[in-house]
Amino acid sequence: MDEVTDEQSLCDDLAGQCKPRDQCLIGIEHEKFIFSQQDHRLLPYAGRVSIHTLLTEMQRFGWQPTFERNNLTGLKLDGAAITLEPAGQFELSGTPWVDLHAVYQEMLEHRRQLVELADEMDLGIMTLGFAPEWTQQKMDWVPKSRYHIMRDYMPKVGVHGTDMMTRTCSIQLNFDFCNQRDMCDKYRVAMALQPLVMVALANSPFADGQDSQLTSYRNYVWLHTDSARCGVLPLVLSPDFNFAEYVQRALAVPMYSVKRNGVHIDLAGRSFRDMMQGKLHELPGEKPTLKDWHDHLNTLMHDVRLKDHLELRGNDSLTLEHSMALAAFWTGILYDDQALQKALAFIAGCDVASLNQLRHRLPQLGLANSDDLPVRGVYNASSLLEALRYATELARKGLERRQKRDAQNADESVYLQPLQAIIENKFSPAEQWRERFHQQWRGDIKAIYSHASF
Fold it and tell me: How far is Cα 396 from Cα 384, in angstroms, rounded to an integer?
């Protein structure tokens, strides 16, 4: 057992995650809501038509089951996994791939499998960032011990923590880094540019059956979940940022739990530093392992977080086409040296206060008036729309330079087209949903079940 007793070993562990440039891969994690077409209720964990049944049926495609306390809570297949969020949100944690063409094929196959089973079980699969009308009271919690610890702890640190757990769905992108400098550059660019695609691809305007008056209610919820581990991480913009500084920040964040014998032990609010000294009364004398450290890093939920890779977490759950557009945006910028250096120059004047102010405005922003939205102190641009266009063009050129082609000889920039169309029309998915809700659906949220599902 690799026992952890000093901070240097934690720094060394992060440094050990560096990859050679030709081994840097792209990973995608995609969450979605599963509901019954019969009554539009979110699928419960157990029962004849349930998440448990869906996981069981997925095994016909070669997926192998994973359990906690004899409860079926996930699946795995080669380098991919299917996991469950607290209220049964269905997440594909995809295999890391060398290019976007392979990412797309995996996403397409996952969708095909889900559609086959949804047709058999009369289910709907919804890709929105926030539950359009489901309330916590009508949701069934997945039997995972960690989630029950978090459910009890969340109300102590924020007003929307349990909403975040049960009523949100997101898409996350994972990217590797080559060395400490490369990690810092990619982290800074990802943290600073994240607001642009969060606005452009906002996809959660509804809550409790109504127009929330926001474009991303999910992002509003995240701002009120836990200020110690969510939102912007100011440290990243510091010139002194490095692995050691991130370790210090992570150690300052309270723990949730550690896993022993397959079950999580409640350590909510405890200090990882104290555990390194064997001072936790729940586990007297016991010191953490590197696995415990990795689990703790996974509880930091900033818009971008560092683990054995960089995880970009700011976006609402999206359709397949918009998911690939988001992946293309980040791949073109982070995995092309020219684009990355130009992005660094573009955010050179970014200060923490201005970025944080913009981040807190994001949930209400749309693209319709984005050419009038100032971004002074964040980007070297006159408006949010100008900044978005510039960054998207950086991504396009970066993707073309990568020269990763599919069987039809198309390079990866083809996946950027849906985002380019959104920018051209100045109409985010959320703004499109809102227009339909008020003009075509006449305020009836029930129409969302046929229009936002597959």
Answer: 18
